[in-house]
From TrEMBL:
GO terms for biological process: rRNA methylation. Keywords: Methyltransferase, Transferase. Residues 183-210 are annotated as: Disordered. PANTHER family: METHYLTRANSFERASE. SUPFAM superfamilies: S-adenosyl-L-methionine-dependent methyltransferases. The keyword Transferase applies. GO terms for molecular function: methyltransferase activity. This is 16S rRNA (Guanine966-N2)-methyltransferase. It comes from the Bacteria.
Length: 210
């Protein structure tokens, strides 16, 4: 069973597509959002959830205070499940787009995205993920945090030049990577590396963490 972990819709259950998606577990989602709240990346954010599946990541963000959330799914069946979940939860500012992740990533938004999730099926190639990230680069805000969930057997995502890895956390066969926009005054920044401590306050990077 998939559910919203916290916020206005906390505890509410979500429908999941019967096939073709790999839902992020509640445990992993809870850890991801604990870190994002520590980064102050959710409240008031404009959120893009690519490869949305059931919409759980984007809907969790909406429940916790994001002001605009776009759920993107190429599968019509999965997009219908997303739409049903949006209607069931009754959260404002959430819409579903049935289209390819790359096409939506490349389209200029009305304002830059503040938080982006990429949780593609594991069979999506590293090259395809890199292409989506490159398409996104011009369309994110200066405060943006990018969250990429991949198989632990996959290479680290190929980040655009203006982004910097700030943390990576392994959960079984899944790795969640976090990146941010590099401040203009910095010519280079060290990668955050693999962060195996569950406490978000133990990661480094550009978010003022110890």
């Amino acid at each position: 069973m998939t559910r919203i972990v916290a916020g206005r819709a906390g505890g509410r259950t979500l429908a999941v597509p019967p096939k073709g998606t790999r839902p992020t577990s509640d445990r992993v989602r809870e850890a991801v959002f604990s870190r994002l709240e520590h980064y102050d990346a959710i409240d008031g954010a404009r959120v893009l959830d690519l490869y949305a599946g059931s919409g759980a990541l984007g809907l969790e963000a909406a429940s916790r205070g994001a002001t605009e959330v776009v759920l993107v799914e190429m599968s019509k069946q999965a997009a219908q499940v997303c739409a049903a979940n949006v209607a069931s939860l009754g959260l404002d500012g959430v819409r579903v787009v049935t289209d390819k992740a790359l096409k939506v990533a490349a389209a200029p938004p009305a304002a830059g995205w503040d938080l982006v999730f990429l949780d593609p099926p594991y069979e999506v190639s590293d090259a395809d993920v890199a292409e989506v990230l490159a398409a996104l680069e011009p369309h994110v805000s200066a405060r943006c945090v990018i969250v990429v969930e991949r198989s632990s057997r996959s290479a680290e995502p190929q980040w655009p030049a203006s982004w910097n890895l700030i943390a990576a956390k392994t959960y079984g066969d899944t790795v969640v990577h976090y990146a941010e926009v590099t401040p203009l005054e910095e010519t280079s920044a060290p990668a955050g590396g693999d962060d195996n401590d569950a406490d978000p306050a133990c990661s480094g990077g550009e978010r003022g963490l110890p």
